[in-house]
């Protein structure tokens, strides 16, 4: 399936339907489109969602850096949009994506790699790539 961006008039109508929070943000869940694997959760502003829908390349908003964050711009681990869905309350977005490489800054495929078990948190997966290789420097 190839992503087709919406027409400009339709895009504005769709963005107007989104219920951004008081900070102008909406939660965005990224899920691998063909396997259903939940990869990560991040935040989007109207501008980030608009860019994502227009280009088909996922763009988030970094709350720590206070700027747009184009997934993969420093790591090369890009997310290509297949479909975007808005939840019933219009306050969360599900992004069905094709994740190139790993989604997590720790070098894992998914950010959800720890499980709450009887004796504490259990690490389910090991990094697939060293985070230093992802970013070309030491990363915390």
Instruction: Give the CA-CA distance, first to last residue.
Output: 36 Å
What fraction of the residues are assigned to beta strands by DSSP?
Answer: 25-35%
- CATH second-level architecture of one domain: Roll
Low-confidence stretches: none
Report strand order across the widest sheet: 2-1-6-5
CATH superfamily of one domain: Phosphoribosyl-AMP cyclohydrolase
Number of strands: 8
Indicate the radius of gyration in whole angstroms.
Answer: 16 Å
Helix content: 10-25%
Question: What structural class do the secondary elements suggest?
Answer: alpha+beta
Query: What is the third-level CATH name, the topology of one domain?
Result: Ubiquitin-like (UB roll)
The tally of helices reads 3
CATH class of one domain: Alpha Beta
Shape: globular
- Helix and strand run: HEEHEEEEEEH
Average the pLDDT over all residues and give the rounded result.
93
Largest beta sheet, briefly? 4 strands, mixed
Question: What is this entry, summarized?
Answer:
This protein has about 140 residues and is α+β, with helices and mostly antiparallel strands.
Main features:
about 140 residues; EC 3.5.4.19; single chain; metal-binding; magnesium; globular; two-stranded antiparallel sheet; 3 helices; phosphoribosyl-ATP diphosphatase activity; alpha+beta; Ubiquitin-like (UB roll); amino-acid biosynthesis
Describe the structure.
The chain is of the alpha+beta class and 140 residues long. It has a domain at 8-104: Phosphoribosyl-AMP cyclohydrolase (Ubiquitin-like (UB roll), Roll). Helices cover 18% and strands 33% of the residues. It has 3 helices and 8 strands, in the order αββαββββββα. The strands form 3 sheets. Strands 2-1-6-5 form a 4-stranded mixed beta sheet. The chain has a two-stranded antiparallel ribbon with strand order 3-4. Strands 7-8 form a two-stranded antiparallel sheet. β5 (79-86) and β6 (92-99) form a beta hairpin. The chain is globular, with a radius of gyration of 16 Å. The protein starts with 7 loop residues before the first helix and ends in a 5-residue tail after the last helix. The relative contact order is 0.17. The model has no long low-confidence stretch (mean pLDDT 93).
């Amino acid at each position: 399936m190839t992503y087709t961006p919406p027409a400009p008039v339709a895009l504005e109508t769709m963005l107007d339907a989104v219920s951004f929070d008081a900070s102008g943000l909406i939660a965005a869940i990224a899920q691998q489109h063909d396997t259903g694997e939940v990869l990560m959760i991040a935040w989007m502003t109207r501008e980030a969602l608009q860019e994502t829908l227009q280009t088909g390349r996922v763009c988030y908003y970094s709350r720590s850096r206070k700027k747009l964050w184009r997934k993969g711009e420093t790591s090369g681990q890009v997310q290509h949009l297949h479909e975007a869905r808005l939840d019933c309350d219009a306050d969360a977005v599900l992004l069905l994506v094709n994740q190139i490489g790993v989604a997590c800054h720790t070098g894992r495929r998914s950010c959800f790699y720890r499980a709450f078990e009887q004796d504490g948190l259990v690490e389910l997966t090991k990094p697939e790539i060293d985070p230093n290789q992802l970013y070309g420097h030491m990363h915390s």
